[in-house]
Amino acid sequence: MFVGILMGSDSDLPVMKDAAEVLEQLGVASEVHTLSAHRTPESVVEYVQKSEAAGYKVFICGAGGAAHLAGVVAAHTALPVIGVPLMSAKMGAAGLDALFATVQMPPGIPVATVGINGAKNAGILAAQIIGAGDETIRKNVIAYKEKMAKDIVAKDEKLQEMGFKKYLEDAGLI
Amino acid sequence: MFVGILMGSDSDLPVMKDAAEVLEQLGVASEVHTLSAHRTPESVVEYVQKSEAAGYKVFICGAGGAAHLAGVVAAHTALPVIGVPLMSAKMGAAGLDALFATVQMPPGIPVATVGINGAKNAGILAAQIIGAGDETIRKNVIAYKEKMAKDIVAKDEKLQEMGFKKYLEDAGLI
Amino acid sequence: MFVGILMGSDSDLPVMKDAAEVLEQLGVASEVHTLSAHRTPESVVEYVQKSEAAGYKVFICGAGGAAHLAGVVAAHTALPVIGVPLMSAKMGAAGLDALFATVQMPPGIPVATVGINGAKNAGILAAQIIGAGDETIRKNVIAYKEKMAKDIVAKDEKLQEMGFKKYLEDAGLI
Amino acid sequence: MFVGILMGSDSDLPVMKDAAEVLEQLGVASEVHTLSAHRTPESVVEYVQKSEAAGYKVFICGAGGAAHLAGVVAAHTALPVIGVPLMSAKMGAAGLDALFATVQMPPGIPVATVGINGAKNAGILAAQIIGAGDETIRKNVIAYKEKMAKDIVAKDEKLQEMGFKKYLEDAGLI
Amino acid sequence: MFVGILMGSDSDLPVMKDAAEVLEQLGVASEVHTLSAHRTPESVVEYVQKSEAAGYKVFICGAGGAAHLAGVVAAHTALPVIGVPLMSAKMGAAGLDALFATVQMPPGIPVATVGINGAKNAGILAAQIIGAGDETIRKNVIAYKEKMAKDIVAKDEKLQEMGFKKYLEDAGLI
Amino acid sequence: MFVGILMGSDSDLPVMKDAAEVLEQLGVASEVHTLSAHRTPESVVEYVQKSEAAGYKVFICGAGGAAHLAGVVAAHTALPVIGVPLMSAKMGAAGLDALFATVQMPPGIPVATVGINGAKNAGILAAQIIGAGDETIRKNVIAYKEKMAKDIVAKDEKLQEMGFKKYLEDAGLI
Amino acid sequence: MFVGILMGSDSDLPVMKDAAEVLEQLGVASEVHTLSAHRTPESVVEYVQKSEAAGYKVFICGAGGAAHLAGVVAAHTALPVIGVPLMSAKMGAAGLDALFATVQMPPGIPVATVGINGAKNAGILAAQIIGAGDETIRKNVIAYKEKMAKDIVAKDEKLQEMGFKKYLEDAGLI
Amino acid sequence: MFVGILMGSDSDLPVMKDAAEVLEQLGVASEVHTLSAHRTPESVVEYVQKSEAAGYKVFICGAGGAAHLAGVVAAHTALPVIGVPLMSAKMGAAGLDALFATVQMPPGIPVATVGINGAKNAGILAAQIIGAGDETIRKNVIAYKEKMAKDIVAKDEKLQEMGFKKYLEDAGLI
Q: Do H68 and F68 make contact, defined as CB atoms within 8 angstroms?
């Protein structure tokens, strides 16, 4: 296994699962854990140190509000740590709280932050990081991006054919 | 000693010293440490556990940006933890980053947050917390607040006497 | 009774009840009142002064918008005051209005602010404050935190056993 | 006297003096006081009740941070209360804290809020309020606005005559 | 009639009607118009000038987004103008756009701004402004505020009697 | 054809279609494409260069989040480019992300930005731009604006006739 | 003359002059006026109507705070109106007030908004709009953009030659 | 060479040089270029494709305002791209514009974003990414972090020895 995906609560799983799924598509093994920077801090530290020793390459950490998980992980490893700020409708602040708490790290301890709720991009970024040193994975990323481009082009062709009014109806968008 | 004052860098000291100074005025002993949640995480944990065992009552933690120090301390103690969000002109975001990263804690691990750069209020709050169980300290807080009220009243009297134009001149405010 | 829980309107009760409930779990007595800083200011002052004289230890105040309740209470007591900023969907501003109006207090009159809608954390913080001077309550807080940690660990074990896809199905999260 | 101008600290006077000065120009008597919602709450209440009884027409209240002064005054009077949110560079938040804490009042207790640091506009608004029931003052407001319009027209004429390059040089703006 | 209530679109009426209703309760006559600063600017100017000449005392203007209506009205009258910033879910920005566009007026042209969607408070403020020069209306405002206070006290008594759990059930709040 | 309407994904079409529809009403031909600045960058460049050579007059680009599409188009053409910031509920930030990423362009490469989700206004602005050099289109814009004004006046007349209570009922707004 | 540049106060001239200067470089005639939406509304309307009749093609309007000037101009013309949000350090809000008040226009009355203080881009955008119907001006814009590109390439060549340390010294940047 | 550092203007160099300097300390070769996403888009694409083919591992891109550089680079490579949002005092928005424009990327094209002005952290993150596949560089990162920790511990020891008052004096911080 290469990528450890952590989140503070199983309520984050419906968003964070996107990271595991895209990694699977890109041929990168991963494992998913619920471990909290605030409620089980020792388990987090232990997990990170054990995983780095075992040859893991990247950590992905998702958290909301005063999102400290990615920073706590980054404090205990020399590996790259990707942070996913999660938005909590109940806590207000439009997701800016988690974004700031993840990205504005002090000098010396970076967190590679993706967009709010951007778990899929976290997975792709992890694959790109591994791909920087692994030609197979990099080729998987290239293929993934080519597939995305083709999908958009195909949609545009369909749009030109149908016109936007029929396209919207057809797609059930109006 | 009763109150541990922590900050991540000695560059925070010019703001955070206000906490130590007001505690001194209120008759509460304190000690000041630079310890970083991200750069010396083990030292933070060790300090907190040792201090709680030694009978400390409150921790005050000042940090800027993705301010995790108060949260990390709160994760390792059952004592009340006061967080002071510090503004960093260089990092943008008008201090909201540190405010969010300090106050928006997940259920179970509260941080008692004061205003941006509010180190003096952190000291007073620590004294109020100790004063909830210690009559002498509570009386010191009462006296402190009465002194503040008197100062304002005195200024208002001077203002009525002088008129606002002369008052401004006299105080060098214009 | 030890903790007074105040809010400006009974529409705040569905959020603020969390404070009373967690205090009950932590063995701390509390009482709940609707009293408004703006509509019944004299009642607030009277209540606070009477309660401090009667030996109360902490006040918890929840309010939304231009949330003044915690500040008004803090102006009339030397006890620690915890502020809970409440978000109002109807008034816009994503809860930042109440957060700012609660936390950005002037020097001399701190409010111990928790996160937006963070009533449960307000209750735990009140218990921590009382626990700073009362070993039984502090032990209750420690036990509460250990229980939280165990719950997360148990969830993680179940997650490892099931894998995240089955876990999500099983929990009805997808 | 008709308008009471309050502020929490004499450090607010360099901004708040603009209200008194423009009222003077508009023929409205006013008086200036430093009285704090948090440090001298009883004095504020006493002042407001005494002034309303004495026939005052409007209150202007300037405060920064968790700006409660206007709201506290509004809680104790049926007269219109104008709030001036003051920006504090030291407390961060770009003045939004004071704006929110002044304007987002709960139903029943409005504060007539002007812009951040808008003390001059507070004075003019107070004159407009008095002018709604007093023809002389309303005419003074009309004359004041006509004077403003003339000043701009004169500047534009000078600008057309000089061209913008010479105008900037002449005014020392570059 | 004394108060003119303007809004840019009839879609604003469900919020803005609160101003007319509370004015009715307070004994102040008002009329409601849809007139747009951007789509029917001449009608706005004409209406304002005619109404000021006819002895109107206050204008209330509700608008969302780049809310210019209150400012445009204020540009054409010496009477006090109350602005109600309206939140538009579709346009994003959490209502801050309308708040800023209403409150941050340049020196010389104040708008008395109330909270986001605060139409009821706009009505009460208009009554307070008229009440500053009209004893009957001021007494109506005092009675209104006393009624509000009594309602809260009654709710608190019911809450003490029932306890918060039963109260919540009884009110259908859980 | 004169106006090219681009968006990064067909999920933007339900908002962006407003631009095409209003252009149709204003007598301006347009075409709609899904092309992504990030997923199909070469297609974007190719399309823009081909369209400018073919005599297109304006581009309209809608995008959400880190909305780069308008900027990328502007980098490859000397024609005016209109940007429509789109709000994404899932990505948080209340639409400010797309607004900033569209409007805050560096010196030399402007994007004519309209409001969040303001696709209809983008269409009208495109017609105004074409109308600056084409009398027929300018007259269509004038007619469109006169129609809007008449609609509001008609609504206001209905409102005066019915009164606001009946109007609300009649329109099903309450 | 083709472009009318308006601003509410001569204090905006040091920023707004950039629009006039870049238009001059691009071969587009312009004129600069100080006219205020709030203080001289009739003059604004008169100027806009006269200028549209005289064949002007575009208006550029700069304003700060509750920036209504561009919207007021747009309400009275069918020509494209470019809005420049100006930041005022004294009024707080980091320029967001003017940005929102300029860009968030209601359906029907667009303002082509450029970045905060983006007067130079407003000038370029005006030239692009005129260039959409005038080949000479469009070629001037193309030449201007090529010149910009060359300048950057030249700087990059110098940077490669010198290395970044020497480059910084040489440019006096450290 | 392994890391390409790009920025849109040489005025970004005083901040961005920190990335190059820390990479040098960590034993990673890098090169610095000024290339603009908006002014020299073809050069950016060409550079990225050439560098990926030549075996570069990571790109670091710094930009302010509507910061598109990192996104444009990410659109043309399968390598990890690090974005540094730069704050521009002149353009307002407190650096949030660049942060949003860098981090809120659409699904499929992640940018690894660091804090506002966080060029040093960008360099360390690049080294961590390379270190994930290169033991020597990972050890350099570990050594760098140990050095940071020692520096803080040393400062804390000095602080304990001196006391905070003498420490502040000694460091010239008061």
A: yes
